[in-house]
Recover the amino acids of this structure.
């Protein structure tokens, strides 16, 4: 009887614990908010109508250096001296950095001694050959040995010359990537030099507007940092491959100011002047739900919010001009984006 009693007690305890856990789970689940995806979401919407927009077109772009290079060495060795720092202005051919060449100089001294001895042998064998004291072939061997040593000397001189790292063009040191005593090897960048006298200004143009740009055509460019100063640019390159948003890069060559006001990475605007106004679909920039690469809006169709791809030709203020993807009469969501998703049921609130 006691054995049965000892068995029943653990079973009873386990049953009580299981019932309590089940009760707690039910209570917890009742307290958790369960979002109903079928429940309509209240949104604000707007019916699109074309607007008169100034004919001038503005494109945002960035300035980049026309020439920029990371400098490395052709020979390996310890960095013995650094003559420049980040921000230093340098001229073409100026020494920037010196590698340890003491071992190469010792090898050069040994070759110089060897050449001196071989030259004396050649002179001596020349006299002996003319007197028929030795065969001419021995003189030829000495001359060949002298030429070999001279080639070795030229090779060492070239290697020593390459231990001095020089500027490939005039510019500004924009990055110092090594320190005194570090080991330098071919392919490892040591310094970065940038030439800002000539700049590249790159914009992204929608497919529908690419025909506007022609090779070598002039355009007016303004840097955001200096809005009162205008720069003249010429089309240098028209991209042959578009990005994910089906926009194509167009690159302009721009001459910097004498004091190099425009820096690499600065933003600017390019203006194409056109007369008159044009009817365009204009939406608020806050209505765009997608990214800059893939802009999207929520279209309302049959009581549902549907994500729809668009192309934005340009922006001004807090507005965006839509070149393709929307048309007159379309209804887009302008507010109530919280919890909104593609295919959600919506109710438009006035």
């Amino acid at each position: 009887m006691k054995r049965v009693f000892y068995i029943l007690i653990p079973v009873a305890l386990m049953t009580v614990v299981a019932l309590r856990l089940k009760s707690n789970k039910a209570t917890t689940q009742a307290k958790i908010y369960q979002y109903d995806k079928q429940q309509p979401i209240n949104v604000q919407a707007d019916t699109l109508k074309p607007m008169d927009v100034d004919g001038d077109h503005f494109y945002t772009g960035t300035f980049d250096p026309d020439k920029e290079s990371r400098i490395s060495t052709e020979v390996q060795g310890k960095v013995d001296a650094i003559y420049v720092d980040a921000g230093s202005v340098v001229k073409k051919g100026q020494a920037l950095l010196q590698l340890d060449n003491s071992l190469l100089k010792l090898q050069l001294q040994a070759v110089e001694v060897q050449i001196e001895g071989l030259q004396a042998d050649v002179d001596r064998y020349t006299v002996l050959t003319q007197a028929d004291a030795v065969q001419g072939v021995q003189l030829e061997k000495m001359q060949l040995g002298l030429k070999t040593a001279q080639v070795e000397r030229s090779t060492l001189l070239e290697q020593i010359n390459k231990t001095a790292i020089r500027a490939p063009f005039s510019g500004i040191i924009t990055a110092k990537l090594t320190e005194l005593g570090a080991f330098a090897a071919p392919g490892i960048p040591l310094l970065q030099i940038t030439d800002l006298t000539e700049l590249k200004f790159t914009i992204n143009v929608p497919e529908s507007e690419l025909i506007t740009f022609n090779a070598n055509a002039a355009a007016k460019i303004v840097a955001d940092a200096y809005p009162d100063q205008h720069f003249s640019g010429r089309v240098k390159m028209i991209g042959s491959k578009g990005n994910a948003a089906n926009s194509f890069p167009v690159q302009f060559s721009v001459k910097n100011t004498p004091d190099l006001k425009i820096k690499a990475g600065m933003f600017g605007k390019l203006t194409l002047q056109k007369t008159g106004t044009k009817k365009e679909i204009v939406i608020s920039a806050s209505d765009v739900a997608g990214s800059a690469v893939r802009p999207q809006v929520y279209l309302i169709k049959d009581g549902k919010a549907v994500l729809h791809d668009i192309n934005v030709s340009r922006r001004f203020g807090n507005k965006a001009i839509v070149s393709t993807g929307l048309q007159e009469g379309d209804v887009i969501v302008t507010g109530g984006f919280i919890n909104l998703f593609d295919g959600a049921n919506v109710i438009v609130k006035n």
User: Anything to note?
Assistant: The mean pLDDT is 85.
